[in-house]
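Good morning,

Both structures are done.
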Amino acid sequence: MGKVEEDPAYLSFSENYLPWHGHVTALTVAPQYRRLGIAKLLTAAFERACDNQNAWFVDLFARASNNRAIGMYQGMGYSVFRRVVDYYSDDPTGKYSSEDAFDMRKPLRRDKKRKHIRENGEDVRINPEDIYRG
């Protein structure tokens, strides 16, 4: 599931402001159908739809420990833009009370200068309350 959205104009001066972009809200494939390319097909279709809507980029959140998902998205051209500290409060392993998320982004056609991506995004830390959730 995904959507195309933008933060309100009054936040445009914030360093965390998000312009018109696509956001992957949820992507789940049943275990018996994993590793067949279904997630890649669905993501690519969403990226095309966002490109047609003239979005700057597509973003998504992945658990910092989810190496399989991170690797898949990196293979599709996504990179970590920033780390959201303690974003997830439901650590499935039970080892921690919370877990960081990687905000991963893939630039689209509109972002010719690639101003909405960065290198070493894993080292850029923000707090969950810095993200607008309208």
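Second structure follows.
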Amino acid sequence: MPEIFITNKSGHPQEFEVHGWNNNHNISVPPHHTSTLSAPDKSSGAIIALHGGHEGEQAEITFNGFGGNDFIDISNIVGAGGNITIQQQGDPSTRKGDPLFMQNLRAAWRKASQHTKDELKGSIFTDKHGDVERMGPIKDHPKLEAFVRSFADGKTYIGIGAWGGSPGNQSDNNQSAAAHGTKNSVITYSDGDATPEHAPAHQAHRFAAQQVKLVEHVEAKAPHKPEEHKGPGIDLLNKSGKPCTYFFYDNYWNGNGTAGANFDHPLKSVHLASHASTFVPLPATFKGRVQRGTLIPATWAEFQVDASNDHAAHGDISLEQGCDGAATIASTDGSHQVGGFTNDILTHAPEKACYKRQDGVKVLASTMGNWIAGPNEAAAEWEMKEVGQKKAYIKGGTGTDDIRSTNRRLEVAFY
């Protein structure tokens, strides 16, 4: 009997309407939790996210259908209020859905003319600041279909597809492509990036976070000698010309090669004067990141100090959620491994690649997208040219050096 795994990556409980399984009873998935539903072979149904009682994005599944294959898709025909994806377990090539649908919707709405917004009145619902909170049913608003196709065509069901003698839209018809045999289904919901997060043990610190807030901080002590510290942690260096406070974010959950994004609970912060350094002790369970301040876009040093497969520290530099300056990460066990970069890539960056952060600082925008906006291709192109995927994660995937230190301690320097 196949199973349906529903993961809620958001920071709040998420209710889902269930059709076809669970005796058609709704389920509420706690934040950063995975719930499981059993599904009889050859059964069909839908899992629909609810937002304030309104139906939104939905995952549709038929197990062991024509030719012995599963048929899975994501549909936004009845609305949207969050992001959702679906795939067969262990097979990312079968993934359907736009993992950043709401971010792309908000970006398109901000760019829309007043005429377009007037046409879409009653189908797009905003908060008091004018940001999109929810989208109504596409099927009830013909103008809405064209608007959604401008940013999500080919990623999700938008129209009705081929049905009742109508040829439908080819992009929608393609959503009906068969998966590979019959397997468990993995549904991922998020207010941020709904891409499932599975990684090898040495990359369990890799995740996609969005927004953060302040916590109690620790003043740095005098410069140290590395050999004085035998426990796990980070040798933190401020190589910039001004004082800075650095924040450490532990993942919401760790284990089995997965990582849950931490939006709002930094573990600690450390203040360093210009050209100062300190050792930051961390629990052996730490898997997450350190960054300048609490805002994004920002450069991230991602790491863990005690991987489950070899009990070594592993880390990398990531520009996926933006860049506010250079950073490096290095081993401290004598193996002389270094990742990241030291050159200034902000000063001469093209305007289209940049973003003015809420603190007034010019930074490079996110290459993967977040709650602010969708992926910035100009930033990705510039970073590929000036840094390259080998030195830092720019567009996810592979090809970035894994910096390993057998003594469970890494050196992180911000420039």
